[in-house]
Amino acid sequence: MLYLSLVLVFILSYSFYFYGKKRALSLKFKKNENLSSLPDYYGYYVVLLVFFPAIIIWFFLLLFKSNFQEMFVMSPVLFPDVATWSSGKFGLIMNKISNLSMIVNLSEIDLTVGDKSILKMASESEIIAAKNLANFDKIYGWSNLTLFIILPVLLGFLATKSISGKLNAQPIVEKIISYVIKGSSYIAIFITFGIFFSLVFEAINFFRYVNFMDFFFNTAWNPNRAFVIDASDGFDQEALKEAFGFIPLLTGTLLIASVAMLVAVPLGLLTAIYLAEYASSKVRDIAKPIIEILAGIPTVVYGFFAALSLAPFIKDVGEGVGLPVSAESALAAGLAMGVMIIPFVSSLSDDVIKAVPQSLREGSYAIGATKSETIKKVILPAALAGIMGSFLLAISRAIGETMIVVMAASLRANLTFNPLEPATTITTQIVTSLIGDVEFDNPKTLVAFALGLTLFVMTLILNIAAITIVKKYREKYE
Amino acid sequence: MSSLEKRLAAEKRFKFYGMFAMTLSLFFVLILMYKIFSTGSGAFVRTTINADVYFDPNFIEVSSNSSKKEIMKASYVDLADQVINQNHPGLDEENFIKVREMYTRKFDYQLRDYIANNPNVIGKTVNLDISASSDLDQIVKGNYPRNVPEAQRKINDYQLSILDSLDSKGKMSKTFNFWFFTNGDSRDPETAGILGALMGSFYALLICFSFAFPIGLLASVYLEEFVKPGKITDIIEVNINNLAAVPSIVYGLLGLGMLIGVFGMPYQVPLVGGLVLGFMTLPTIIIASRASLRGVPPSIREGALAVGATKMQTVFHHVIPLSLPGTLTGTIIGMAQALGETAPLLLIGMVAFVMEIPGGAFDPATGLPSQIYLWSESAERGFLEKTSAGIMLLLSFLIIMNTVAVLVRRKLEVKW
To answer: Cβ B20–A270 below 8 Å, yes or no?
Structure first.
């Protein structure tokens, strides 16, 4: 129904465009009034006055649907003392009612069949509430639909009525549109603020449980120790101290990212050099898009590949040589990640290398240098800043990468620099601490936000550094 | 060796390194594709066992006059057992269970769907291809080795002997696995399908597009055409560049903390997934759209202004239509990235086991990549195949989207 009302808003807005325009035209030709704007603008004027209020209301109805649902189901008529309930009890009863509503739905109003045992345990008013809940979508949908027939039509007619020759529609329309455009560009800022505040807010909640210094400087990561079944038990402060040590996650992240960079930097850079300086245009045209495919492959595919093929392969090879290799070694995750980053490094470096002025190359050839000497002694030093920038972006990519490490790296924290051992990363721990649990009332889930904030700050610094370096470099040759 | 020879040798070596690096990168693409296709192609085929099915009215709770609803509600477990007894006469209880395991657990559903489509079949005998269980399927496809001790096999010796006798009678066959494209997720690999995840991704992308495209387009128009360079533009600009490089998992945290935590939006629905993907795609679209707007020559604007158009008319009647192909290309590429993005979906809960096919953006759902992740975590061999097949599907969507993007650029872009 909500979709239908959205479609309705669009259709009505569209037809009101013609209605407004027609009204303006009839003013001009039948009543001989002089119009201040082109007839089209009267159409736009009506549309804007219909569309925006309707769409805003539609959006709010969508956003607060669950609140309306609760108000509707937990009405004081059915539960007289609902206002005094704690949020825990409220949630519990709501849950019970939503379970009930499924049974009510299945047996379709006939309460004598279905799972009677659950029904027997429920009170009369709870069953009525469950029935209400089962009907809520229908009622909500229909009332929305009615609202979205009445509202736009009413607004549309009011707006059309207000059209007269004196009304200058064009500046009004342009003003509204300019506000909309301006608002759109501020959304990017809102998103950044949203990220920052949602991270900071929950991270502060986390640091209420866990000491700031303990988090950043402890070397033990055992979040399961902080697990309590009943929140009223409180947390064992000693266990909390030992539970959330960030250091092994940081080393694990850096270890896997370094393995990835060890693969991606030489391969990516050499590929870029070969494609930019040596390859014929034919080879370039074929090879470049194929390598770019690597960048387009979703990371879940790399993760699958790393866990399924790469890790067992490395384990077998290692055991063949006599080295003990873990099945979840940092090496496997790092290698897969490295392959993922190759096109990232190669295409960025390629751009930078191509931006080096031709005159530098020619100068070098003129004094008798070979091509490789020119590349090593002239082009690379000239492009160094840009290449470093691309490396920094690649590192930021590597430490923020999630799926590969979730699927191929270990869940157990391990303070090690040996790539053959298992290691875990920041992103892996964010995912594991949040999967299947959205109660923000214990440090075990809240830690994800503290980790996310740390990750955000780390990547932000790398990105800003990279962008600044690349920009400086670009200015040098422009 | 003279110094010149040395230098030339170094030159050759360096060129070889470059070629080697490039070939190695190409080789990675090949090996990845090979691995995915070789493990995934099996999922499109399903092993079936041919059997005569007598729709015995004694074992069916409904009659041919029953309504479709009643037929769908009734249980067909007894009928399924009866069919197996008829096709494998003289089984004792222990062996019956073993034989039953060779058929799909959803055998009764298969019978139910058949009756629902042909209600008149009750009381008659029909020759049907019944889906085998996933373990049997894997043995037939050769993914499970046969020549290992019985304890290490999912299919025991008795079942193997039955399989061989069925095979010699020509009862085993393979059909195209439609279920993979028409079913939702399932605990049994043989009936698990991708449609639920596909629809989840579709709704999420729909939301993502309706959020990111208009806002991205308008924001870039504001930044390129209306605002004078200054502090605020600089801030927005730096902001957008940074947003483009924020790890996707952080967007997932935004969705969880803000949309679900603060605004109380439901967990694991495509609406939240789509909005989060939209936040992620927005910078990509803005960057592409700005580049495209910058590509429109000033003469177009000056021409429009010269004949008396307002700034707004110039932009909306001339500049935007001319820049649209570039914006669309950027949008499609951004959407392709969003389609493959998994981490944010994990955090907002779109990784649960969902059997029903979602009917809208408010129904619990998984997405295509998160379904792939879910299957990849399953221990059963049958799901390995599904994972790869899911990846093949995902990759083909990405290829289609990118091809469309290239075509849009080639066919519609105006060259100045």
So the answer is: yes
More confident residue, B381 or A390: A390
Where in chain B do CATH 1.10.3720.10 domains reside? Answer: 195-412
List the domains of chain A with CATH numbers: 2-167 (no CATH), 242-477 (1.10.3720.10)
- Long-range contacts (CB closer than 8 Å, 24 or more residues apart) made by B154-159: B155/B102, B156/B98, B158/B95, B158/B98, B159/B98, B159/B99, B159/B101, B159/B102
- Mean pLDDT, residues A100-112 taken together: 57
Which of A277, A305, A463 is nearest residue B32 as measured by Cβ atoms?
A305
Nearest to B189 by CA among B233, B145, B154, B224: B154
pLDDT reported for residue A109: 46
Strands B125-131 and B172-176: unpaired
Q: Dihedral sign, CA of A390, A393, A399, A401?
A: negative
**Under an 8 A CB cutoff, do B22 and A300 touch?**
no
Residue B352: list chain A partners with CB under 8 A.
Answer: 436
For residue B253, list chain A residues with Cβ-Cβ distance below 8 A: 195, 198-199, 430, 448-449, 452
**Closest to A130 measured CA to CA, from A67, A62, A74, A65:** A74
**Shortest distance, CA A405 to any CA of chain B (angstroms):** 11
Q: What's the gap in Å between the CA of A198 and the closest CA on chain B?
A: 5
Residue A438 has pLDDT above 70, yes or no: no
CA gap A122, B370 in Å, rounded: 37
C-alpha distance from A263 to closest chain B C-alpha (Å): 10
Q: How far is A171 from chain B (nearest CA, A)?
A: 10
CATH number of B195-412: 1.10.3720.10
Question: What pTM value is reported for the model?
Answer: 0.88
CB contact under 8 A, B384 and A296: no
The answer to whether B346 contacts A66, with C-beta atoms less than 8 Å apart, is: no
Searching chain A, which residue's CA lies closest to the CA of residue B247?
A400
* Chain B contact present for A430, CB below 8 A: yes
End-to-end CA distance of chain A: 56
* pLDDT score for B49: 86
Q: Quote the DSSP letter at residue B227.
A: P
Give pLDDT tens digits for A19-43: 888 888 888 888 888 888 888 888 8
- Which phi and psi (to 5°) does residue B127 adopt? -90, 115
Q: Which of residues 21-80 of A touch B (CB under 8 A)?
A: 63-67
Mean pLDDT by 10 residues, chain B (416 residues): 85 91 88 88 86 81 76 80 81 82 83 82 82 84 80 79 82 85 86 92 94 94 87 83 90 90 83 94 93 92 94 93 91 93 91 86 89 88 89 93 88 75
Name the band, by pLDDT with cuts 50, 70 and 90, for residue A334: very high
Rounded to 5°, angle at Cα B102 from B99 and B106:
110
Query: Is pLDDT larger for residue A404 or for residue A218?
Result: A404
Q: pLDDT-derived band of residue A121, with 50, 70 and 90 as boundaries?
A: low
Q: Where are the alpha helices (DSSP H) in B74-182?
A: 77-87, 93-102, 107-117, 134-141, 157-168, 179-182
Enumerate the residues of chain B whose CB falls inside 8 A of the CB of residue A449: 253, 257
Tokens of A450: 């503290």
Task: Tell me the average pLDDT across A168-188.
Answer: 89
pLDDT, residue A162, reads 84
